[in-house]
Amino acid sequence: MINQRIPEPVRPILENYAFLTNKELPDLISGFYIVGSIALDGFNEKFSDIDFVAVLNRKANQADIEKLTVVHKTIEKEFPKWKLSGCYIQIHDLGNFENEMEPHPYYHDDKFHDKGYFEINSITWWILKNHGIAIIGKETAELPFTVDWDLLIAKTKENLNSYWVSWTNRIDGFFVMLSDWGIQWTVLGVLRQYYTFRKNSITTKTKAAEYALTCLPNRWHSLIQEAIDIREGKKKSLYRSKIVRMMDAVKFLKYVIQTCNAEFP
Q1: Crossing angle, helix 221-231 and helix 242-263, to 10 degrees?
Q2: Range of the domain at 232
């Protein structure tokens, strides 16, 4: 029986995945865990992927990869609305980083990759350990790894000052922020970092934005609410111009980055 924390709309896809992998690869997968927004109780039918971490009993060979590819393609065809996205690793890889493990198979954007690195970071490990939902295998609290919170904060700070800074000076980023998707991605994404620094925890994009409304200046409230509204599927914009909204978003990113660097050096 599927875990009751799994939202009703995506239960069939996970039940089908468990059935197909057990049928085609009965000795390969020892654990399959849901992370991301679903694990944080922030499932959004419009924007959420079904993020996962799969733990293997052994290293996947070419025959395994071919069968996993067929499984994913079968599910993709049957459930085109939903996107599975995650990695296939071995148990000794849990909690490690790219320089500590071999490349692994992963599935993302409707494509199976036989080797590489995907979402190998402290955030993934923290969510898995503290909020992960077991579909196959033991409960996540029993998994043999720990998460160093100080290291997580350091890695988050690096990400803030590399990935998120890039959004403030990339021409292609400005074009993305002309779209509704780009506004919710950037505004809510950087606010998750802000929330983590201030609250020493990790939450969903929407909850991070709701928290920001209680402590950031009124100057930014319209933009933050705009991002929340987009994520919640509301059509009416608080802005008359998408160009003005995009310019506001760039200024907002710079403000949040500067604030985080000042408050949490």
Answers
A1: 110
A2: 149-263
> Does residue 119 belong to any structural domain of this protein?
yes
Provide the domain count of the chain: 2
Mark which of 142, 168, 189 sits at the end of a domain.
142
- For the residues 226-234, what does the mean pLDDT come to? 91
Q: Compute the Cα dihedral for 177, 182, 184, 186 and give only its sign.
A: negative
The sheet that has 29-34: what strands, in order across it?
111-113, 106-108, 84-90, 50-56, 29-34, 133-136
CA distance 10 to 185: 22
Closest CA relative to residue 32, chosen from 9, 63, 55, 57: 55
112-163 pLDDT tens trace: 898 888 888 889 999 999 999 999 988 988 888 899 999 999 999 999 999 9
Q: Let me know if residue 2 belongs to a domain.
A: no
Q: Is residue 1 part of a domain?
A: no
Name residue 188's amino acid.
Answer: L
Q: What is the pTM of this model?
A: 0.85
